[in-house]
């Protein structure tokens, strides 16, 4: 299947992409035979852009993301073809030692189960400082300053005090901000976020996506945003690649693909985005007959409620 490469972003035709994946294939040896999880994939992340890699569960998104970081490759998993060019260098030719500098240094990862990325037995600040000192030759006091800056970037309230907190003392949304701060601590040129909001409720999801968008705008960090949700693509991505059964079936400018999807599969993913609007039945009930919630004067939620009168 031919898969058009996305055009360069308007206004930056001379800027080289930060990441170019060409002809990437990955196979797993399983008890029931060989599985090709990634099948001749081409992807491009423009400098300063956000590429949404979207597809249903099992389509190969995470395996593709892990290849970029050199985290695939064992007796049972094999990269059978391709190149992963990051800032012009093919990461697939690097040694494990060289990749340790790239991971967490030049490329940050917010992994699919991000909350387990924090060690419950260490303070937030110590976990940040450890990552910073692993990649930058700075003393502990300087690393602590960089750590605090990173917590400020992710807008963690009361960051100085939070440096001394353990993960269980933070809410899910706050922990996710810390995970993003760790991924950003060494100011990577590329951030890979694999379903970064999966475990969070809808309001917090939106806040985390807005935070990533701010980071992209303010720091210029390029991003690969892995998601199964076209709502996320519409909200924040400049380009999109649609993945199905290990292959890219469609890719290009996000706005263009959302307006004119060429593949029924893409249309299906877009139709799966929930719409938080009133159903037709609810619309049919006159506004005057809809039951309104009752608020007592002291309601803690009054200021956030549409119908509150206090
Ligand atoms: N270690 C492994 N051994 C065998 N098969 C694997 C392994 N890891 C992944 N796969 C297979 O590769 C395919 C792609 O998996 P991947 O985790 O990339 O999917 P995904 O698109 O990220 O899905 P999700 O949205 O559920 O996270 C799946 O069929 C999966 O079963
Ligand atoms: Mg995945």
CATH architecture: 3-Layer(aba) Sandwich
Total separate domains: 1
- Name the structural class: alpha/beta
Helices and strands, in N-to-C order?
EEEHEEHEHHHHEHEHEEHHH
Number of helices: 11
Keywords: ATP-binding, Cell membrane, Membrane, Nucleotide-binding, Transport
Subcellular location: Cell membrane
Pfam families: ABC_tran, oligo_HPY
Family: Belongs to the ABC transporter superfamily.
Task: Explain what this protein looks like in three dimensions.
The chain has a single domain (19-273), classed as Rossmann fold (3-Layer(aba) Sandwich). Helices cover 33% and strands 23% of the residues. It is built from 11 helices and 10 strands. The chain has a 6-stranded mixed beta sheet, sandwiched between helices. Strands 2-1-4-5 form a 4-stranded antiparallel beta sheet, with helices on one face. A hairpin with a 2-residue loop joins strand 4 (77-86) and strand 5. Bound molecules: adenosine-5'-triphosphate and magnesium ion. This is ABC transporter ATP-binding protein.
């Amino acid at each position: 299947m031919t898969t058009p490469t996305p055009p360069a972003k308007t206004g930056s035709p001379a800027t080289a992409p930060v990441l170019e994946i060409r002809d990437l294939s990955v196979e797993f040896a399983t008890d029931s035979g060989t599985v090709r999880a990634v099948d001749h994939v081409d992807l491009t992340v423009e400098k300063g852009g956000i590429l949404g890699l979207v597809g249903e569960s099992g389509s190969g998104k995470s395996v593709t993301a892990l290849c970029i970081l050199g985290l695939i490759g064992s007796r049972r998993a094999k990269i059978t073809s391709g190149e992963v060019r990051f800032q012009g260098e093919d990461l697939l030719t690097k040694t494990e030692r060289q990749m340790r500098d790239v991971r967490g240094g030049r490329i940050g990862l917010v992994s699919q189960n991000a909350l387990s990325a924090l060690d419950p037995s260490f303070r937030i600040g110590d976990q940040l400082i450890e990552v910073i000192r692993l990649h930058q030759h700075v003393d502990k006091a300087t690393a602590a300053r960089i750590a605090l800056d990173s917590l400020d970037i992710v807008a963690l309230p009361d960051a100085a005090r939070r440096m001394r907190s353990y993960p269980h003392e933070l809410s899910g949304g706050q922990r996710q901000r810390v995970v993003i701060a760790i991924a950003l601590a060494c100011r990577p040129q590329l951030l890979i976020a694999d379903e970064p909001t999966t475990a969070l409720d809808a309001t917090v999801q939106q806040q985390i996506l807005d935070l990533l968008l701010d980071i992209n705008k303010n720091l210029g960090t390029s991003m690969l945003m892995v998601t199964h949700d076209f709502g996320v693509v519409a909200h924040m991505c400049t380009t999109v690649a649609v993945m199905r059964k290990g292959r890219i079936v469609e890719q290009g400018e996000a706005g263009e693909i959302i307006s004119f999807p060429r593949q029924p599969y893409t249309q299906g993913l877009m139709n799966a985005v929930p719409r938080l609007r009133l159903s037709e039945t609810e619309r049919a009930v006159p506004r005057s007959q809809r039951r309104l919630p009752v608020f007592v004067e002291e309601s803690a939620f009054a200021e956030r409620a549409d119908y509150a009168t206090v």
